[in-house]
């Protein structure tokens, strides 16, 4: 059998109908449980290498929570919230009155279109690559067999020497908070609201909590976030946390730090009361319980195989994404952090290559983090907190977006870009951005880190003007200035170069 190049992009655009099996054959080269980013890319990678792969998916649409309930819908709503906020600002500046509040259903109209278009694209991509699709709930019988129960109750057994668990995750629930999906919601049901609430209490301060809190605050909802943590998004550097919190409060949001929740109950009339451990209570139209996510591992037969699960409920895998059971691999949210769609897709591809004994590309540690709050936050590489912990001698160059012409043109002058550079060489080690377009801007910094570029790289290059990318140049000059202040000889050289560049 001839094997095509194995590390190919799965992004293709020509359309063809997907082939959904009605009576699947018994034998495949690879079975993928789940059709999210990890399962899709694993199956497609196997197919591109010349192997016969099948995806088992229990939902009507493919794409997993990423497409149906999480990444795509929440980001689509975020874009609508940004448009709505800007429209209100335009109305005030033009002395025009907007009539009433926009119902949530109107804001979500475009979301269904986005989901439908992505579903069509994914199905066409699977069909084009001759990956087969079986609808139903999969359960492991042993290391080589998966039983599929269809919606009509019929069952069939699929055989393959390799299985990849890409079952994704679901919202984490806690016993003290009963999620009824009507007044107390989780991230699977928050977008099913028929109306825009006047007030919202968000329990938690992680990524999902902060994304939805800022979205609803931008839509004019009175939002209160409650958590034990001193600040939200505690995994980020202090400057990014402070930037988010300032922007959130500027939109009318409130953050109650050091607060523990006892419970939440609907008053039977119109509001939900959140009971705090100090005996006080808060009321809101809706409560959003955002306690993170938990891997979808229940009911798929893991107990039958004695698959190793860690203390946080994730499948344990080695560097090849193989579990303790030979021939069974796992990727995506099933194996835990970073729990990002981009990481899951990469893990799925790597797991498929490992399963067939094919060489993967060089492993990279440069996985960008994107937080789709308002404003956006993104970072890649070394953080300042990590540098301090390692006692590394770094210099941080900063460009406030207030200095960037394009930021004023688009009326988004809040935020900054920071370059974390090694002091001795000015080599770029990390990039942090908060503000409009942060999740796009960070990729230029990611490329600079990958190529071991120094801050001078951003001074020497010519970028279009006016663009947000100008922030890299401003931050680079700041790095050079700080380094020159510490070394008189270097200062003269840098000033000469800066004059020459302009």
General description of the model:
- With 502 residues, the chain is α/β, with parallel strands linked by helices.
- Helix content is 34%, strand content 20%.
- The strands form six sheets. Strands 3-2-1-7-18 form a five-stranded parallel beta sheet, with helices on one face.
- Helix 3 runs antiparallel to helix 5, helix 3 (71-93) packs parallel to helix 6 (207-218) and helix 14 (470-486) packs antiparallel against helix 15.
- The protein starts with 29 loop residues before the first strand and ends with a helix.
How does the SSE layout of this entry go?
Blueprint: E1 30-33, H1 37-48, E2 53-57, H2 64-68, H3 71-93, H4 104-107, H5 109-128, E3 132-135, E4 137-140, E5 145-149, E6 155-159, E7 163-165, E8 169-171, E9 184-185, E10 199-203, H6 207-218, E11 222-226, H7 238-250, E12 254-256, E13 261-266, E14 272-276, E15 281-284, E16 286-289, E17 293-295, H8 302-305, E18 328-330, H9 341-355, E19 369-371, E20 377-381, H10 384-389, E21 394-400, H11 405-409, E22 416-422, E23 428-434, H12 438-450, H13 455-460, H14 470-486, H15 488-501
Parallel strand pairs: 1-2, 1-7, 2-3, 7-18, 9-16, 10-11, 10-16, 11-12
Antiparallel strand pairs: 4-5, 5-6, 8-17, 13-14, 14-15, 19-20, 20-23, 21-22, 22-23
Count of DSSP helices?
Answer: 15
Shape: globular
Strand content: 15-25%
Fraction in helix: 25-40%
The main sheet orders its strands as 3-2-1-7-18
Oligomeric state of this protein:
single chain
Give a count of the beta strands, DSSP E runs of length 2 or more.
Answer: 23
* Poorly predicted runs of 5 or more residues: 1-20
């Amino acid at each position: 059998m001839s094997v095509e190049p194995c590390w190919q992009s799965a992004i293709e655009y020509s359309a063809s109908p997907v082939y959904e099996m009605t009576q699947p054959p018994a034998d495949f080269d690879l079975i993928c449980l789940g059709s999210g980013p990890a399962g899709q890319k694993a199956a497609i990678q196997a197919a591109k290498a010349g192997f016969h792969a099948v995806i088992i998916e229990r939902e009507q649409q493919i794409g997993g929570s990423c497409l149906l309930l999480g990444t795509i819908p929440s980001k689509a709503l975020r874009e609508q919230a940004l448009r709505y906020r800007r429209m209100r600002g335009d109305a005030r500046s033009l002395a025009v009155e907007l009539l009433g509040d926009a119902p949530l259903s109107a804001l979500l109209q475009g979301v269904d279109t986005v989901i439908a278009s992505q579903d069509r694209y994914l199905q066409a991509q699977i069909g084009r690559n001759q990956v087969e699709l079986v609808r139903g709930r999969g359960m492991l019988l042993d290391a080589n067999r998966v039983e599929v129960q269809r919606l009509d109750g019929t069952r069939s057994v699929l055989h393959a020497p390799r299985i990849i668990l890409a079952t994704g995750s679901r919202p984490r629930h806690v016993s003290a908070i009963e999620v009824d999906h009507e007044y107390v919601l989780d991230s699977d049901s928050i977008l099913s609201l028929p109306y825009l609430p006047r007030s919202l209490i968000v329990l938690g301060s992680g990524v999902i909590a902060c994304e939805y809190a800022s979205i609803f605050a931008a839509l004019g909802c009175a939002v209160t976030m409650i958590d034990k943590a001193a600040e939200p998004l505690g995994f980020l550097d202090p400057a990014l946390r402070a930037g988010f919190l300032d922007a959130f409060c500027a939109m009318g949001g409130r953050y109650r730090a050091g607060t523990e929740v006892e419970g939440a109950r609907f008053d039977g009339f119109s509001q939900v009361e959140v009971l705090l451990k100090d005996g006080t209570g808060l009321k809101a139209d809706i409560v959003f319980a955002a306690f993170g996510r938990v891997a979808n591992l229940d009911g798929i037969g893991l107990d039958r195989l004695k698959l190793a699960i860690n203390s946080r409920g994730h499948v344990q895998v080695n560097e090849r994404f193989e579990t303790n059971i030979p021939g069974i691999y796992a990727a995506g949210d099933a194996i835990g952090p970073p729990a990002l769609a981009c990481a899951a897709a990469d893990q799925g591809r790597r797991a498929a290559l490992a399963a067939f004994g094919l060489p993967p590309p060089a492993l990279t540690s440069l996985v960008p983090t994107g937080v789709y709050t308002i404003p956006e936050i993104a970072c890649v590489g070394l953080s300042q907190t990590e540098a301090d912990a390692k006692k590394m001698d770094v210099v941080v160059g900063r460009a406030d977006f207030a200095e960037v012409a394009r930021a004023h043109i688009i009326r988004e002058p809040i935020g900054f870009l920071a370059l974390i550079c090694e002091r001795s060489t000015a080599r770029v080690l990390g990039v942090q951005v908060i503000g409009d377009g942060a999740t796009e801007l960070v990729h230029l910094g990611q490329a600079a880190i990958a190529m071991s570029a120094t801050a001078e790289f951003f001074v020497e290059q010519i970028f279009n003007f006016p663009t947000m990318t100008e922030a890299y140049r401003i931050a680079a000059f700041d790095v050079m200035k700080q380094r020159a202040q510490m070394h008189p000889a270097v200062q003269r050289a840098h000033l000469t170069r800066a004059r020459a560049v302009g």
